[in-house]
Design a protein that fits this description.
Layout (H helix, E strand, L loop, with lengths): L18 E9 L10 E5 L5 E6 L5 E8 L1 E8 L6 E7 L4 E8 L12 E5 L5 E8 L3 E7 L2 E7 L7 E7 L3 E2 L3 H8 L11 E6 L3 E3 L2 E10 L2 E16 L5 E12 L10 E3 L2 E2 L1 E15 L2
Protein name: Polyisoprenoid-binding protein YceI
InterPro entries: Carb-bd-like_fold, Lipid/polyisoprenoid-bd_YceI, TTHA0802/YceI-like_sf
GO molecular function: carbohydrate binding
Length: 284
């Protein structure tokens, strides 16, 4: 560097340099914290300006950053590293925001094979609007399923069965009503069933068109599906993780009970928002 010249991110020997403290959070694409992630900022000359480690909540702080251009690097075990060009602003504090790391799974699809759901580490939940004000959440506690990943991933299939009486919302009176003929009618229809025999690309993820049988009525249902990655477990197996969402109209499944409490206001909304998070174990 010649006398009188300066490049952003490079300290000038003997000069007082105002510094900035950077704050941010490292998370997965789904918003979960990535504990232990390393965050580093390099100056324009490639020298390290600051480095820190994300805590259990994914948050990090980098002190002593000079203003100017640089490169921000983020890395964590089992995740794909990330690099980006940044401009550190002048001032006492810089909010970096959320830095998202994807799990290193090798590909964007799991290895072919038969995967069985690990129900102890999976959830099937639903939310409904209540009185036009709040949201009531519930989940099914008993279910089973299989995911068959074909070598041609578009020909993969999913089969799942849910015990209707296992619905829980945290309120015994409401749970009994949901199990009654007004809703799930569990005595006549003890299970819900979902089947899909193809997979399609959709946006940044996948779309799973299938058929849901609920309270004796079968209707087409589309799940927006994300593959979250695969990896070994402590018992010598291989697991894959998936999340999916869908919106169901109660009327499509003849779940028409409701009670008006005012003009345009009913006890339960007409739409159910379903969220599914599963771990599945590859079978030998």
């Amino acid at each position: 560097m010649s006398a009188g010249s300066w490049s952003p991110g490079t300290r000038v020997p003997g000069a007082a340099v105002a510094t900035t403290a950077a704050h941010g959070r490292v998370v997965t694409p789904e918003g979960w914290p990535v504990a232990g992630a390393t965050v580093t900022v390099l100056g324009a000359d490639g020298a390290q300006l600051a480095s820190g480690t994300a805590g259990d909540d994914g948050r990090f702080t980098l002190d002593g950053l000079p203003a100017g251009a640089g490169t921000l690097l983020v890395a964590a075990p089992a995740h794909a590293p990330k690099a980006m060009t940044v401009v550190v602003p002048a001032g006492p504090s810089w909010t970096v925001g959320e830095l998202r790391l994807t799990r290193r799974g090798g590909t964007d699809v799991p290895a072919p094979g038969l995967y069985l759901l690990d129900t102890a580490h999976s959830t099937v939940s639903a939310k409904a609007h209540h009185l036009g004000l709040a949201t009531v959440s519930g989940r099914f506690t008993e279910f089973a399923g299989a995911i068959t990943v074909d070598a041609d991933v578009a020909r993969s299939r999913v089969d799942a069965e849910i015990v209707a009486a296992s619905i829980e919302t945290g309120n015994a009176q409401r749970d009994a009503h949901l199990r009654s003929p007004d809703f799930l009618d569990v005595e006549r229809f003890p299970t819900l069933r979902f089947e899909a025999d193809r997979l399609e690309r959709g946006g940044a993820g996948w779309v799973l068109p299938g058929r849901l049988t609920l309270a004796g009525t079968t209707r087409p249902v589309q799940l927006d599906l994300s593959y979250l990655g695969s990896g070994p477990d402590p018992w010598g197996g291989t697991r894959a993780a998936f999340s999916a969402t869908a919106e169901l109209r109660r009327q499509d499944f003849q779940l028409n009970w409701n009670q008006a409490v005012g003009v345009g206001i009913a006890v339960f909304g007409t739409t159910l928002r379903v969220t599914i998070d599963v771990e599945a174990v590859l079978q030998p």
